[in-house]
Amino acid sequence: MRNLFFIFILIQPLAMLSQTIIKRADTLSKSIHLIVKSNADSTLQLVRQLKNDSEKEDNQYGLMMSHYLLGRIYRERGEFDKVVENYLISIQESEVEQNNQAVLSPNQRYHLSILYLQLGNIFRNYRSYALSAKYLEKGMTVAELTSDTHLYARIKASLVMTFEKSGEFERAIRTAKSNLEDDEIRYHQLLIMGWCYNHLYEYDSSILVNNQILDEVPNSMSHLREYAHNTLGEAYSSKGDYDNSEKEFLNAQSFREQNPQIDRKPDYRINIIYQLAKMYLKSGEIAKAREQLHYGEQLIESEQDDYKHQTWFFETYQLLFQVYDQLGDQEKSAYYNRKYDDELELYTKLHQRYDMDKIVQSHFDDIETAEKEATTQLYIWIVAGGLILDLAILLAVNYLQQVRTRKKLEKKTIDQKLAELKALKAQINPHFLFNALNSIQTFILDDKQGVAESYLVKYGQLMRKILDHSNELTVTLNDELKALKLYLELEQIRVKHGFDFEIEIDEKIDPYETYIPSMVIQPFLENAIWHGISKLEERGKITVNVVLKDEEIEVKIVDNGVGFELAPNGSGHTHSGVRLVKERLELLKESAEKESVVSLESEVGVGTTATLQFPDKLHN
Question: What is the rounded CA–CA span in Å between residue 486 and residue 465?
């Protein structure tokens, strides 16, 4: 009754004609979280009325705020496609307001920063990491113009999380280190740094950072202490220090149980249980692993399906499958294998529920269509009023049609080339992965479980990068080199006498802003390893050197393998992956209107150098 009374009191002044749209918008904004939880339908009607009145009076601020508030309402209702659409419209109305006034008010800048922050968070949750980073960086630009340093730090912290989730761990650490001034943000940034160090296998750095958190964080922030203990448990487990790992995981569980102020939702509790059980399995304590996993199973069953956004929900069932498989209980093993499939399918559906990239693209396509329609309408009026210029108009129309026809033909040609490029790339990827799968199978058959596990971890990371860029013709140099490093680490395990490798980047190149064709360097590395280094009776060496040369990116792959004699045309033995790369680059030349170059130099007994050159101005 109290909430309903509050809404009634709020509605009365909002309905009064004497109030301005700006005051109504600000009043609603301050109370939106409370009243939408009390009565979402009534709140929705209030905001729609504000939107209608703002349209009648052509009040840009009212339109900006009404779409922002509509987004807040749909966010509470879990309709994230409508949230994104309304937030994007609100941002555009803000831009219109800025064009009219030249400078936004502090209140408008604050709301615009929040819009960018919330969009960035939504895009990250639905794995649209490029969009997330783009809007968070816009938010930082706006927030920097305000005096709210905490808001700026919050947005930057969210950007750090996006980098971590997208696998850009070095970039996340670098950004987090520059965002430690705000005390409230500082410890969260240190936590993410610890997670990233674990992903980068820098476990000692992770242990150092998380112990720093435990030394500095006040007891009132017990949830952060819980996270730090859990991350320490993961680091010690990866190092094989199972006693310290168990101690840290149990400390994390204890914090969760003893501090009721910590969020009681089971999702993170399941993560702790999952990591602890995983450690018990590695250390051979099957009974303890089974006990933890069944506890986690109970929590999973209590969680609503709409909130199962984390991988450890289905991975818990995968571990139960492994436990009962090792115990020889085939019935329970098969049961948990089916449960794993069900939870994995649910997780996949949650992440595929909204394609944020398509929603954003559709939004801007609609705007472009509306602008074209408005232009067309204006054109019709001009023609109708300019009959005396019939001849000139006919000539102009004819010219425009010729231009339009030529553009369509050009676009059709480019689309065909892009389709051919994607088809060729699709042939390279399976070739890339086939040998890795064979190696995993060999290690398992040879009973090399430790090697197989290490190989699988790196293989999984490599698969993630390949899938993330499966539809991209170009990727950042940073992403491509990360994938190549993983590939080389995998091949180091397979080659009989082993090899060392080194990747060098010209300091004039920004690897985060430089784009190169995806999956074109790896086949040359594969050639170097399997037709050069693997035939040596000693340890080999590969160097990848990336330099900026005459507005071109030049990549040299140098090996000290057995070498070969070049044919008169300058070619030598190459596998199908290299041939496909050359075909892709030939097509890319026509699509990008610039030429890429591939050349080989080799000397028997000395080694081989492959050189690739790409235009510096490629973009995704």
Answer: 10
